[in-house]
User: Which sequence fits this backbone?
């Protein structure tokens, strides 16, 4: 059902009005994995808006460089490199290169991930490993590399992880990603407890639907309109909102926030099941398991 015209649908401020001062990250360096596009780029841009120097890691050096160029246009120093976050050697080398270019990394945004719709019985071992290892191993390896360096320097730090709203419910055609994102959330809590004595904070955003140029929501055959009507807020998230919340958790404004998995989904997870659209088994959906009609 389309969102009725009389419903009030709130919108965030425009991109050039972030919810924190332009110098709140001045003198700091953030490393963003998978920061060349999509939600990772939204994170990188949000940190750049607060004055942080930005290092972007990506599987594709071209995409990482494109993301870095967008951050540089905001007037901050940037660095881009290719990195397979599943490799501890490549992660360590990426940190070395970023710190040689920009200085010590004091903030970390774990976004690197992979996902695609497939029914659980059709997930191959390689497909399972591709999705779970990037999210789980990549988050762990980047986080521990970051923490070792901060602890050795006697310096504080903050980490933000990109999790997902469906970690509590699963999602049709998404058994691999749901498992990986759930592990990220649990890891967030565990690392926050371990590293609190070193003033290293660790949080996560359990994100709902934030359409961007590479997201499934944009490419759906049904378009976004049916999806908007399923969300109490009346719309999907704007990608800058996700970036701003992610960066905000790392500011001094929320200096006691750690170990939290913050749901940002427009209230979609609050819908009462009896009021949801009719359930169609994933294998019977004409457009594939990720179709919502």
Assistant:
């Amino acid at each position: 059902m389309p969102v009725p015209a009389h419903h009030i649908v709130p919108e965030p401020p425009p991109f050039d009005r972030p919810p924190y001062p332009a110098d709140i990250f001045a003198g700091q360096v953030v490393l963003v994995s998978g920061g060349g596009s999509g939600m990772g780029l939204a994170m990188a841009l949000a940190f750049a808006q607060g004055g942080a120097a930005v290092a972007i890691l990506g599987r594709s050096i071209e995409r990482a460089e494109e993301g870095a160029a967008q951050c540089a246009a905001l007037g901050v120093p940037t660095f881009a490199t290719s990195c397979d976050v599943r490799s501890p050697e490549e992660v360590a080398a990426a940190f070395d290169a970023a710190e040689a270019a920009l200085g010590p990394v004091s903030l970390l945004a774990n976004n690197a991930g992979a996902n695609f719709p497939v029914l659980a019985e059709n997930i191959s071992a390689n497909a399972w490993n591709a999705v779970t290892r990037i999210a789980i191993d990549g988050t762990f390896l980047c986080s521990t590399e970051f923490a070792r360096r901060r602890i050795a320097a006697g310096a504080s730090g903050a980490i933000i992880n990109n999790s997902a709203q469906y970690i509590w419910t699963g999602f049709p055609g998404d058994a691999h990603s749901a498992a990986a994102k759930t592990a990220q959330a649990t890891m967030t809590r565990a690392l926050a407890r371990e590293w609190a004595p070193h003033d290293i904070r660790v949080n996560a955003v359990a994100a709902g639907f934030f359409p961007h140029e590479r997201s499934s929501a944009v490419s759906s055959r049904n378009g976004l309109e049916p999806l908007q009507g399923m969300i109490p807020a009346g719309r999907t998230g704007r990608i800058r909102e996700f970036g701003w919340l992610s960066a905000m958790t790392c500011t001094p404004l929320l200096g006691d926030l750690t170990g939290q998995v913050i749901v940002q989904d427009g209230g979609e997870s609050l819908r009462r099941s009896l009021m949801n659209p009719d359930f169609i088994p994933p294998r019977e959906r004409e457009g594939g398991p990720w179709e919502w009609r």
